[in-house]
């Protein structure tokens, strides 16, 4: 589904992320009453954001709580935070719209990095690298979701999984989200594919509910496929597709 060129129609992602000023949000609320396309699109962005946050959340190890509680008495409190001067009103809306990708990245990354910070010193550089990779992935995903030309399509795989694909020509990338995806089984994994005129090209792996950035170039692909493959993936599909869903146009 393509955004219209007008400003009102381009605010669905910012609205879903809570990145609009009060006046802008009220105006868009009024716009939603008369625009069915924007109501659907805003709902899709909200659902995708919720799935993303659930998909990347991590639970800190049990030992982390004990370490934090033991260290509380020796941690000095921060001084009061003095608010910075407010940005001129004329720039407010512009800055918020430009910050939409980072707003989504921050909202989703909080689920990951909130736990990461607690036991980062215990895991050292390996954990720091994982955190950087998570941040990069989240930034790339959020850029697609918040792109002005983002289009969304929903599907259902043969195994019952609910799927969503969001694509952006501007970003030249697409995001795949799966919910209710059954466990692949021992020695198996789910593999994603981009269909280029009948040629299936590997586009990444997904083992459980979550969101991934599709590998490869979606610009000239017609569909996204999902198959069950041996662990590590395959150069070509070895099983019938569980899903072959046309990319959003």
Largest sheet: 4 strands, antiparallel
Q: Over the alpha carbons, how many angstroms does the gyration radius reach?
A: 21 Å
Give the termini distance in whole angstroms: 7 Å
SSE string: HHHHHHHEEEEEEEE
Estimate the mean pLDDT confidence: 74
Number of helices: 7
| Strand segment tally | 8
Order of the strands making up the biggest sheet = 1-2-3-6
Number of domains: 2
Task: Briefly note the structural class of the backbone.
Answer: alpha+beta
Low-confidence stretches: 1-6, 86-104, 110-116
Gist of the model:
This protein is of the alpha+beta class.
Describe the structure.
The protein has 7 helices and 8 strands; from the N terminus they run αααααααββββββββ. It is an alpha+beta fold. It has 2 domains: 138 residues, no CATH class; 96 residues, Immunoglobulin-like, CATH 2.60.40. The strands form 2 sheets. A 4-stranded antiparallel β-sheet has the order 1-2-3-6, covered by helices on one side. The chain has a 4-stranded antiparallel β-sheet with strand order 5-4-7-8, with no helix packed on it. A hairpin with a 2-residue loop joins strand 4 and strand 5. Helix 2 packs across helix 3 and helix 3 packs parallel to helix 6.
